[in-house]
Design goal:
The chain has 425 residues and is an alpha/beta fold. The protein has 2 domains: 3-92 and 196-412, Adenylosuccinate Synthetase, Chain A, domain 3, CATH 3.90.170; 103-194, Adenylosuccinate Synthetase, subunit A, domain 2. The chain is built from 14 helices and 19 strands. The strands form 5 sheets. It has a 10-stranded mixed β-sheet with strand order 9-7-5-2-10-1-11-15-18-19, with helices on both faces. The protein has a 3-stranded mixed β-sheet with strand order 14-16-17. A hairpin with a 7-residue loop joins strand 18 and strand 19 (410-412). It is globular. Bound molecules: inosinic acid. Residues 12-13, 38-40, 125-128, 130, 132-133, 217, 221, 230, 232-233, 266-267 line the site of inosinic acid. The site of inosinic acid has 19 residues, from helix 5.
Length: 425
């Protein structure tokens, strides 16, 4: 069986975690291909809520292997804390694997991230403060330290000390002896999880097992295709799964774009359909739109179909999974952005940066609760019309409709690529 990609089609926080959790039941491997603990993937099972930051969401469903891939950046202390919390909550983490090629986020990356934000002043990007940007900078500058280095602490120490001068030259006061000692402690816990994940994934593919590549953040935060510079530092789009895990396009069968029924953004940067009014507040309250990692209130607005069509193109999305449809249950009228005014020439991020003004289509709400809907037919007529409008505009089918945080609140359409019960454990 091949690889299915699950990617965010907006500015992150689309609900990828719960979709991956749901699809995990038909998979053997779930693998994160980019980003780090800037992500906050939430999986709710019964009365338990799991907040995952770097460990793939498949861990809750108990897939055979959870891979933190070569394209990720891993904060050792954060990983140890996450593994411990999961174990404490009865989740088996023995088959969480960190690629030896993944880069480490070290304390000085966090300090560099914070100091760069301070320097930007009013133009701050609003990063999560997890050191993501500086860790990726070190990777491309060829001065990073990889997880595989922890297998030989002597080498890791040497690599760390080799960084001393450059880090201090950037104005970061850091006690590298203390950092090295802490890293040694963390390494003792992490080393059993470090391995060659490239071979692992290829062995699984060879055996005919399904692999889910779990995206982090969203397409509009992609370092190439997003609303630069208000982006993260990784490749969040579908292509990033190939370079971030190490397989070719021939293995991919489906690309599932996860999209919220409205739009949110956290951090700085332009947001054409933002609602800085009561309507926005209502979406935030009803949708509990507060960051998992930072607790920051998320900016809320109407669904931007222009941006969604762009996401469909740059990712090759084959199916959509739409989440939080229930949040719209109480609205009399729902707007969707179907064009931008006077965008001029250039690609979409430039149009958005120039202050694109949204043109809306509006449609009547359904004013009925959807939380108990378990099939397409259970959804109110106007809700189906809303979803059909989205499908028609972007040209790909909606395969999954989520109407609440529970596992059984995902409606699977007839032609959905993966059903819910393929490999229930
Ligand atoms: P960084 O990834 O911490 O460098 O932050 C860069 C930008 O990406 C900021 O606007 C963050 O708010 C945003 N960002 C990073 N991770 C996430 C996420 O998981 N969800 C939503 N926004 C995110």
């Amino acid at each position: 069986m091949p690889v299915t990609l699950v990617i965010g089609a907006q500015w992150g926080d689309e609900g990828k975690g719960r979709i991956v959790d749901f699809l995990s039941r038909g998979a053997h491997v779930v693998a994160r291909y980019g980003g780090g603990s800037n992500a906050g993937h939430t999986v709710r099972v019964g009365d338990k809520t799991y907040k995952l930051r770097i460990v793939p969401s498949g861990v809750v469903a108990g897939v055979d292997h959870c891979v933190i891939g070569p394209g990720t950046v891993v904060a050792p202390g954060q990983l140890v804390a996450e593994l411990d919390t999961l174990e404490f909550n009865g989740v088996d983490t023995s088959r969480v694997w960190v690629s030896d090629l993944a880069h480490l986020i070290l304390p000085y990356h966090v300090e560099l991230d914070k100091s760069a934000e301070r320097e930007r002043g009013e133009d701050a990007l609003g990063t999560t403060g997890n050191g993501i940007g500086p860790a990726y900078v070190d990777r491309v500058a060829r001065t990073g330290i990889r997880a595989g280095e922890l297998l030989d602490m002597h080498r890791a120490r040497q690599a760390l000390f080799a960084r001393t001068h450059a880090v201090r030259a950037q104005g970061i006061a850091i006690d590298l002896d203390a950092v090295a000692a802490e890293l040694e402690q963390q390494a003792a816990r992490i080393v059993p999880h470090i391995r060659d994940t490239v071979s692992l994934i290829h062995d699984e593919l060879q055996a005919g097992h399904r692999v889910i590549a779990e995206g982090a953040q969203g397409s509009l935060l992609d370092v190439n295709f997003g609303t630069y510079p208000y982006v993260t530092s990784s490749v969040t789009v579908a292509g990033g799964a190939l370079s971030g895990l190490g397989f070719g396009p021939k293995h991919v069968d489906y690309v599932i774009g996860v999209v919220k029924a409205y739009q949110t953004r956290v951090g700085g940067g332009p947001f054409p359909t933002e609602l800085a009014d009561k309507q926005g507040d209502e979406l935030r309250e009803r949708g509990a739109e507060f960051g998992v990692v930072t607790g920051r209130p998320r900016r809320c607005g109407w669904l931007d179909l222009v941006a969604l069509r762009y996401a469909v193109q740059i990712n090759g999305i084959t199916h959509l999974a739409i989440t939080k449809v229930d949040v719209l249950d109480t609205l009399y009228q729902i707007c969707v952005c179907t064009a931008y005014e006077d965008v001029g020439k250039g690609s979409l991020p430039f149009a958005i940066a120039r202050g694109a003004k949204p043109v809306y289509d509006s449609m009547p709400g359904w004013l009925k609760t959807t939380v108990a809907a378990r099939s397409w037919e259970d959804l109110p007529f106007n809700a189906r019309e809303y979803l059909k409008f989205i499908e028609a505009y972007v040209g790909v089918p909606i395969a999954y409709v989520s109407v609440g945080p529970e596992r059984n609140q995902i409606i699977v359409r007839q032609d959905a690529p993966i059903g819910s019960t393929a490999r229930v454990r």
